[in-house]
Write a structure and sequence with these properties.
The complex is a heterodimer of chains A (about 120) and B (about 120). With about 120 residues, chain A is mostly beta strands. Chain A contains no helices and eleven strands. By secondary structure, chain B is mostly beta strands. In chain B, the strands form three sheets. In chain B, strands 2, 5, 6, 10, 11 and 12 form a six-stranded mixed β-sheet that branches. The radius of gyration of chain B is 14 Å and the shape is globular. The relative contact order of chain B is 0.33. The chains are: A mainly beta (about 120), B mainly beta (about 120). Chains A and B meet through strand 4, strand 5, strand 9 and strand 10 of A and strand 5 and strand 6 of B.
Chain lengths: ~120, ~120
């Protein structure tokens, strides 16, 4: 159990367009979902924390108007990169913590590779 | 504030030899410690955790880690490394038993296991 699905795995878009990435907890309800950004061979940088039905909490330096996060249900959170530019190209990873039987660890999606041309 | 340090960017080991990946932490309260592994272009997979109890924690794929409070360390170990263990390993910590699960990750250690 505790599977997190992320879609799409790969996306290429033109500069100026918006891209939506979905993060779903398939077999559990997620109290909280987290969005990370990872540059090559670097650690994960937490971008924002989202709780179902409330506004996301963004980390310092992350533009909330640039990276829109919606957490409409206990199993789905979305990250929309608005007006994407080449510097937004990165690996985006989501994770979730369980609402019930929270054993402490986070469960991660497989990541989404965004390339902005 | 919480932080975690992985002092080695890369660890090289021959297949069959013991593998150790180092991690030290700093928290204001009791630590909750985790190890994750990442394969190329993939998300993170949970290996093991220390919340409370025995200092020696056993996890997935034959890995184990020892919590050492006096040295504030949580080193990851495997008695006999496999080539398939080559990956990026992250140590993570949080100091509050809340439901948010906000983790602080180390910089990561690349493990290279040679045949």
């Amino acid at each position: 159990g505790a599977v997190v699905s992320q879609h799409p795995s790969w996306v290429i878009c033109k500069s100026g367009t918006s891209v939506k990435i979905e993060c779903r907890s398939l077999d559990f309800q997620a109290t909280t979902m987290f969005w990370y950004r990872q540059f090559p061979k670097q650690s994960l940088m937490l971008m924002a924390t989202s709780n179902e039905g409330s506004k996301a909490t963004y980390e310092q330096g992350v533009e909330k108007d640039k990276f829109l996060i919606n957490h409409a249900s206990l199993t789905l959170s979305t990250l929309t990169v608005t007006s994407a530019h080449p510097e937004d190209s990165s690996f985006y990873i989501c994770s979730a913590s369980r609402r019930v039987q929270n054993t402490g660890e986070l469960f991660f999606g497989e990541g989404s590779r965004l390339t902005v041309l | 504030a919480q932080s975690v340090a992985q002092p080695e960017d890369q660890v090289n080991v021959a297949e069959g030899n013991p593998l150790t990946v180092k991690c030290t932490y700093s928290v204001s309260g009791n630590p909750y410690l985790f190890w994750y592994v990442q394969y190329p272009n993939r998300g993170l997979q949970f290996l093991l955790k220390y919340i409370t109890g025995d200092n020696l924690v056993k996890g997935s794929y034959g890995f184990e880690a020892e919590f050492n409070k006096s040295q504030t360390s949580f080193h990851l170990k495997k008695p006999s490394a496999l080539v398939s263990d080559s990956a990026l390993y992250f140590c993570a910590v949080r100091d509050m038993p809340d439901s948010w699960g906000k983790l602080q990750f180390g910089a990561g250690t690349q493990v290279v296991v040679t045949p």
